[in-house]
Amino acid sequence: MSRLTVIGAGYVGLVTVACMAELGHDVIAMDLDAEKVGLLREGGVPIYEPGLAELIAANRERIEFTSDPGHAYRAGEFTFVCVDTPPTYSGDADLSRIWQAVDNLPSDEGEHILVTKSTVPVGTGALVQAELARRRYRHISYASNPEFLREGTAIADFMHADRVVVGANDPETASRVGRLYQGVDCPVLSTDVASAEMIKYASNAFLATKISFINEIANVCEATGADVTVVAQGMGMDHRIGPHFLQAGIGYGGSCFPKDVSALKQIAGNSGYHFQLLNAVIEVNELQKRRVIGKLKRHLGDELRGKRIALLGLSFKPNTDDIRQASSIVLAGRLLAEGADVVGYDPIAMENMRALLPTMTYASSGLAALQGADACVLVTEWAEFSTLDWEQAKRSMARPILIDGRNALDGAVLTGIGFTYEGVGTRVKLG
Ligand code: UDX
Question: Closest ligand 1 atom to the C-alpha of 257?
Fold first, then answer.
């Protein structure tokens, strides 16, 4: 078993800490935010991720939390860099925290492997290695080990990964990093550093492309009378296509897809290549979020001023309180700009949304949001909306108009109750 230092107690960092400890390693988690470290020491977890608090607690004797870089960087045989690389105004990634990690590396200690888990532009690993060479840090070798964790299922994604990718220039470094994952039953793919970096971007961009593709098919289905859920099912039965990430809806969001698709476009552009396909993927996604407005107008008339619109679900997907790039933000913003009275409800993302959009009204439950509403848009497919008492909801709404932005509800049942139900690319039922 090894001794690991994990830099950055954010989303990726904490999942890495908990799972590496679960695999039997001793882990030091370092974050400069002393308040966050204090909370973690007391058993708190600063983010919402199912199972994370429990996994940290179960492995607490193998985990140390610290805000002291001097101690942290000297303690591990491996330093995993899990810091944020947010997009800058130009669309490039801000790598200042990666360079800060390089600056903090001990100049004079024994053999050490620096492992980048943060998503960084292709070529960053080469720059870091050049900098290590310039500093004559021969005791430090380098690996890229991208993460493929989905929010809400990150622990399972780590422990039951499809693959572990390790990019390193020497085989010994690659195999030492790969061995850390013993206990995770999946292939370890050894690559060069640049290819490992690219695998992360290409995977996310491909998944985003799949979503934009099926969303365009959905839009054509709406115009032609086909049903996208059946179309996706039929497509997915072809093993070359696969059934996953073919759920049509009102666009993808989150901290990864929008950022990584833009970053890949930028990386290509910076190296002189115009990545045309990604432009379309981005544009389709932006338009998809706004299509709901057109649907509402078809049912309520062009004048949305004063109309009460309920938004069910505000997070970018279920089981997370993360609202980054969520479709709800664009939708709520557009509706507020049209003068509508927008009421939102989410099981756990409401505080985050309130901080961003204080002018929206917030309801204490799904049913409360629907009270007196002229229309309802299901934005995020939280399980509780499937089991909502829709008969009671219909009685309390001013007009029973329901736009299901995730095709999560049973349109036939709801139409039977008396709703005017419309999904995304499903057969349109005008009540
Ligand atoms: C994603 C990647 O899946 C993960 O591998 C990567 O490391 C981080 O980014 P995440 O953003 O947590 O994970 O969520 P994901 O489940 O992939 O969903 C992203 C967005 O796509 C959500 O808004 C979701 O609603 C949307 N989506 C997903 C669809 O609209 N249709 C689908 O079929 C799947």
Answer: 9
Beta bridge partners of 310: 343, 376
Taking the C-alpha atoms of residue 412 and residue 418, their distance in angstroms, rounded to an integer, is 10
Q: How confident is the model at residue 106 (pLDDT cuts 50, 70, 90)?
A: confident
For this structure, is 256 an active site residue?
A: yes
Single-letter amino acid, residue 215: N
pLDDT over threshold 80, residue 356: yes
Residue from 165, 207, 250 to probe ligand 1 pocket by mutation (most atoms less than 8 Å from CB): 207
The strand order across the sheet containing 3-7 reads 63-66, 26-30, 3-7, 78-81, 112-116, 140-144, 164-168, 188-191
In this prediction the pTM is 0.94
| Index of the ligand 1 atom closest to the CA of residue 203 | 5
How many Å apart are CA 117 and CA 19, to the nearest integer?
14
Segment (H or E) for 290: helix 276-300
Amino acid, single-letter form, for residue 312: L
For residue 4, which amino acid is it? L
Q: Averaged over 60-71, what is the pLDDT?
A: 95
Q: Which residues line ligand 1 (CB under 6 A)?
A: 147-151, 204, 207, 211, 245-247, 249, 252-254, 256-257, 316-317
pLDDT attached to residue 428: 57
d(CA 353, CA 369): 15
